[in-house]
């Protein structure tokens, strides 16, 4: 597939794009800075400018596409990961405006150009736990996609707005628009750097609902979305199948979620950030990672 990928130079994208290239796709990375990786095409684009987005989505990816003499090829899919990635990097109003406007521009252009699939990054923060002021617990566990999404912060608010935008464009167009509620992205080197502290003090993972997603497995999730057609608008939790702490899930519940409703039985170390929907509809089966590494 010929894929227009936004934000491919970021923490997640720089692992997802190589995975997609390995699957045989051609990827144009639209970002403010290029991704220095063999085989990836780069185009500097300000996604808050609708004219630049439209132009980029109707452009050649690189000089070699001039050779056939058959005109500019179209994109088969858009993967939209670009964003201010959390609070406290830019002022709140800038974070919100950037993330909402860029997503609107990308989806609008894709729909009007007849691109049949858009995959966009939403966030675990939409459930209102991650950046809450104080200790905010979920309403029940495991946290699935039906859980209320009422966040307090500008980043998560922007992600909720993006989901509403996507749902509306999907209803208008009928294309596939899949939102990924991505949990805390962990790069391979971060297992040695971060996880010993999580083993020592599980409470450090409370705001992430004790979950994580290996950046390489996020590539698998995107590929499963690319290969699964006809779902319309859907949102999916994205995480690895195990928790990010050493204690059993039963103990996580006892220590941190005592008294909360538990809606189903959970495995000994199963994540409380539910990924059953992605498993069922997409065939998403990421391997366990950190316990193997450490």
Distinctive features:
seven-stranded parallel sheet, Rossmann fold, 15% strand, 9 helices, alpha/beta, 294 residues
Helix content: 25-40%
CATH class: Alpha Beta
Q: Could you give the order of the helices and strands?
A: EHEEHEHEHEEHEHEHHH
- The CATH homologous superfamily name equals NAD(P)-binding Rossmann-like Domain
Report a brief summary of the structure.
The chain is of the alpha/beta class and 294 residues long. Helices cover 35% and strands 15% of the residues. Helix 1 (13-22) crosses helix 6 (215-227), helix 2 (50-57) packs parallel to helix 3 (92-112) and helix 3 (92-112) runs parallel beside helix 4.
Write structural notes for this entry:
The protein has 9 helices and 9 strands. By secondary structure, it is an alpha/beta fold. The chain has one domain (2-185, 213-241, 271-287): Rossmann fold (3-Layer(aba) Sandwich). Strand 4 (77-80), helix 3 and strand 5 (117-123) form a beta-alpha-beta unit.
């Amino acid at each position: 597939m010929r894929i227009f990928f936004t934000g491919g130079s970021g923490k997640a994208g720089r692992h997802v794009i190589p995975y997609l290239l390995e699957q045989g796709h051609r990827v144009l990375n639209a970002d403010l800075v290029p991704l220095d990786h063999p085989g990836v095409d780069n185009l500097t684009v300000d996604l808050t400018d609708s004219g630049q987005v439209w132009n980029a989505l109707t452009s050649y990816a690189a000089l070699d596409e001039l050779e056939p003499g058959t005109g500019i090829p179209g994109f088969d899919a858009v993967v939209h990961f670009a964003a201010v990635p959390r609070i406290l990097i830019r002022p709140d109003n800038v974070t919100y405006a950037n993330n909402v406007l860029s997503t609107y521009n990308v989806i609008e252009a894709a729909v009007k150009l007849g691109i049949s699939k858009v995959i966009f990054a939403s966030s675990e923060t939409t459930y209102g736990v991650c950046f809450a002021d104080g200790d905010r617990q979920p309403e029940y566990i495991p946290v699935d996609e039906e859980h209320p999404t009422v966040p307090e912060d500008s980043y998560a608010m922007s992600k909720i707005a993006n989901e509403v935008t996507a749902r509306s464009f999907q209803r208008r167009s009928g294309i596939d628009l899949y939102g990924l509620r991505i949990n805390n992205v962990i790069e391979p080197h971060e297992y040695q750097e971060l996880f010993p502290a999580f083993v020592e003090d599980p409470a450090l993972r409370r705001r992430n609902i004790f979950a994580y997603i290996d950046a390489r497995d996020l590539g698998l999730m995107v590929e499963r979305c690319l290969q699964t057609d006809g779902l319309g608008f859907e949102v999916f939790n994205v995480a690895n199948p195990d928790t990010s702490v050493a204690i059993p899930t039963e103990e996580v519940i006892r220590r941190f979620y005592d008294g909360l409703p538990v809606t189903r039985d959970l495995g000994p170390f199963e994540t409380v950030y539910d990924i059953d929907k992605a498993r069922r509809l997409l065939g998403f089966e990421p391997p366990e990672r950190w316990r193997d590494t450490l």
